[in-house]
Write a structure and sequence with these properties.
By secondary structure, the chain is an alpha+beta fold. It folds into three domains: about 90 residues, Orthogonal Bundle (Butyryl-Coa Dehydrogenase, subunit A, domain 1), CATH 1.10.540.10; about 100 residues, Butyryl-CoA Dehydrogenase, subunit A, domain 2 (Beta Barrel); about 150 residues, Butyryl-CoA Dehydrogenase, subunit A, domain 3 (Up-down Bundle). Strands 1, 2, 3, 4, 5, 6 and 7 form a seven-stranded mixed β-sheet that branches. A two-stranded antiparallel ribbon has the order 8-9. The longest helix has about 35 residues.
């Protein structure tokens, strides 16, 4: 599995731009100059028309710097949900703004800590004026200061469906939450008889969400690989510079072994993440399994490498002044996002007729 020359050029362009623009200020240039917000949006809707491998490159670079940008929530989740719904009118109306970065979307989906469609209890019922009223509370919604497009998963008489709900509509309330990982904002959205518009076929939302979850796990796995790789780079550099007992600590065999083990974890995770991206582009039938593998492998690899980063940095690794704690917290938060590794191993086991451990 190899990326194309164009994709490697995309990597260089994204890394260069993120070096010049830090934090949230990078969203405008990244969208305008590289088209990052519309990488997965078809050209007919104003996007780049790229695939999962292009998104992989972008997310890996964003992961290296623990970027707070809304690419995962808007360019992957919201865009993916709109396309999966098959609602051409909504796609034509909403995707151009999402593609050029002038609007940001959020997918309100999880409830009670679960991203399984079966766990959805939010309800959508017919309103008195012929519309649909959505009521429920959504957790772990990836947040951004301004959300222009809000998609909500709710249950109707036909099953789980997707609805477009104006973010500023009556009965809609956003509650930002304090998370361990301060580099990725999350919010809780509460809806009380909020006016919603059905997207796609009624009762077809469960299928759409399962596909979106696979795309999200694939993109998140790439981000985890980028962050784990950068954590390892910083740790290797420190091991070369830190002198103890008259020698660089990286020259001690025990430290070499730990760094080598971390390198194997990163490269194994990279292979799993790339495998999911290739499956999304070339073999959609294999995507559910590949995405579950990638989410499980990359989550555990990132957590292990981030832990080693703190351990091998010694005392400075547990201070607020060093970035080690940021990588450790991102690893913990990303590992739980869209379901922990054990949940995805259970998905794999169920597909193989086995019992997960």
């Amino acid at each position: 599995m190899r990326l194309t020359e164009e994709q490697e050029e995309l990597r260089s362009a994204v890394r260069s731009l993120l070096t010049r623009h830090q934090g949230a200020s990078a969203w405008g240039p990244l969208s305008e100059q590289i088209g990052a917000a519309g990488l997965a949006v078809p050209e007919e809707y104003g996007g780049v028309g790229g695939g999962a491998r292009d998104v992989h490159v972008l997310m890996e670079e964003l992961g290296r710097g623990l970027s707070p940008l809304p690419c995962l929530g808007s360019a992957v989740l919201t865009v993916g949900a709109l396309l999966a719904s098959g609602d051409e009118e909504a796609c034509g109306r909403l995707l151009p703004g999402l593609a050029d970065g002038t609007s940001v979307g959020a997918l309100a989906w999880a409830e009670r800590g679960s991203w399984e469609p079966d766990a959805i209890r939010a309800e959508a019922v017919p309103g008195p004026g012929g519309g649909t009223l959505v009521t429920g509370a959504k957790e772990h919604v990836l947040d951004w200061p301004v959300v222009d497009v809000l998609l909500v998963a709710a249950r109707t008489a036909c099953g789980v469906s997707l609805f477009e709900v104006p973010a500023d509509a009556a009965g809609v309330r956003r509650e930002p939450v304090v998370t361990m990982d301060g580099t990725r904002g999350q919010a809780r959205w509460v809806l009380e008889a909020a006016e919603g518009r059905l997207l796609g076929a009624d009762g077809d939302g469960g299928r759409s969400l399962e596909h979106v979850r696979d795309l999200a796990c694939t993109a998140l796995a790439a981000e985890q690989v980028g962050a784990a790789g950068r954590a390892l780079e910083l740790t290797v550099a420190y091991a070369r510079d830190r002198v103890q007992f008259g020698r660089a600590i990286g020259s001690f065999q025990a430290v070499k072994h730990r760094l080598a083990d971390a390198y194997v974890l990163v490269e194994s995770a990279r292979s799993a993440a790339l495998g999911a991206a290739f499956a999304a582009d070339e073999d959609p039938g294999a995507l559910p399994r590949a995405a579950a593998v990638a989410k499980s492998v990359c989550s555990e690899a990132f957590s292990a490498v981030a832990g080693e980063m703190i351990q091998l940095h010694g005392g400075i690794g547990i201070t607020w002044e060093h970035d080690a704690h940021r990588y450790f917290k991102r690893a913990h938060g990303a590992g739980e996002l869209f379901g922990p590794p054990a949940r995805h191993r259970a998905r794999l086991a169920a597909g193989l007729g086995l019992t997960a451990r």
